[in-house]
Structure formats: C-alpha cells, structure tokens
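Lab notebook, bench 4. The sequencing result for the construct came back, and we need a structural model before the next group meeting so we can plan mutations. Quick request posted to the team channel:

Model the 3D structure of this chain.
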Amino acid sequence: MRPTGTVVVTGAAGQIGSAVRPFLAQLFDSVRLVDLVRMTVNAANESVLIGDVNDRSVVDQAYANADALIHLAGVASTSPWADLLDANVTGVAALLAHAERSGIRRIALASTMHVMGLYRRDERITPHMKARPDSPAAATRLLGEQVGQWHAARTGARVASVRIGCFKPTREESEPCSWIGPEDLARLFHHVLMHPRGNAPIVHAVAPHFGDDCGQRALWWRHGFRFEHRSESRRRSLQRLSWWYPSDPIACRYRGGEFASRTLAG
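Done. Here's the predicted structure in token form:
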C-alpha cells in the first residue's frame, strides 16, 4: 500500500499510540506524534511535539497542513466523572474545533467496545445497534462519539468513531472474544481516514473469530475493510473465559467483562 498524506496522532505516547506508530509510519507519508509525555523519533517520517492538545500554540503547530487526525488521547479508567467528561467529551469538542480551524476534515476518534459492554456474549452485535455502555468511562466515550457525529453533520467533515476492543500485541494476551492487535488497528485507522464511506461511520475494531460477529461483516460490506489477523474460535474463547474469570459468572456472560460485572452487581 502506497503511503498517503500527513497524519497527526494525539495521545501518541500511550499504550495504543506506542504500538501502532511503526505501522502508521508505513501507511502515511508523515506521522506527527503529540503528547505531554516525552517521546523519541523512531522512523524517518515521524516528528514529535511535546505539549497539551488544549494549548492553541501546540495545536496550531501540530495541525498545520495535516491531512488527517487520529485522536487517541482521553481517559479510559475509573476516574471521577468530572475528569472523564473533561477528557472524553469537552476535550473531543475542543479537538474538533481546532481541527475545523486548521482545515482537517478526516478524523478518527478512538472509542471503546465497552460502549456495547452490557450485551451478552451470545448476542450478535453491530455498530448500528443501540449502545449499552458498561461503565462511566464507556458512557463518556459514547458521548464523545456523538459530539463527533454532530461535528460531521455540521461541517461535512468525515469523523469516524473506532470502537477498540482489548488491545494487546497478541491474541494470547487478550481477554477472550475481544482482541485487536496493533497492525490491524493501524490499518483500520488508515482505511477509515483515507477511504471513507459516509461522514460519521462507527466501526468495531475487534479481530474476527469463527462463530461470532461483532460487526466485522458490516465493516467489509459497508467499508471494504478486512482484518489481516484472526482471533481464536468462539468455542476456544468461551473456554478461556472460564479461566479468565474463574469466579465471576457475570463477567463471563457479558461482553464488558469485569466492567459489566461491577455495574450489574452493584
């Protein structure tokens, strides 16, 4: 695949950003990495900017003449509501406003599969079904998606929400039934940015495994994307769940795992 354009990556020093960097460097002509945490340049087409994405001077420098934006920054933990709302909702709105001012019209927002976490594992899910978030963090990520959809409707920009599963280098390290690896996630980001279909698509970033469909078929039919890496079979995943959560039947039953268990167990 021929590299295309310049992409800005916020939250680039985090777990996901650090792992997808090498693959993004192969997919884009230039990769600009932005974070508060110090990073080093690992590829000839990478550049690093240390700073806060809420700082207008930092944003102006990072976004100048960029073609696309991947927003990985945010709060994905059990932080207080105020912190979650500030990072995952208000922060997304500010980021999109900066992108509009800088002329960036291809944007991918990192979300989470936990917005569907209160569906049972035996229920087939697609991105267009009603969300059932399993935690405050997932609820605010869902609000961030909706801010992105509003921005796309208002400006005509293309804003994709990428719901990321259990992100690990290998499927053996992942919670069963929800693995996504760095290469396929980088490819998916590139695809929704550079080959978009629709102004505000929602896609599920979960490697396909035989016997279950989390929206991978819809991803192929609607967006023309196929994953390179497959997860284990559904049968094997369900076997591993009992080892992963040996004393938590709620986590075994629901896609959100321990987050669903915390919510439903009160």
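The CA atoms of residues 185 and 198 lie 20 Å apart.
Will bring this to the meeting.
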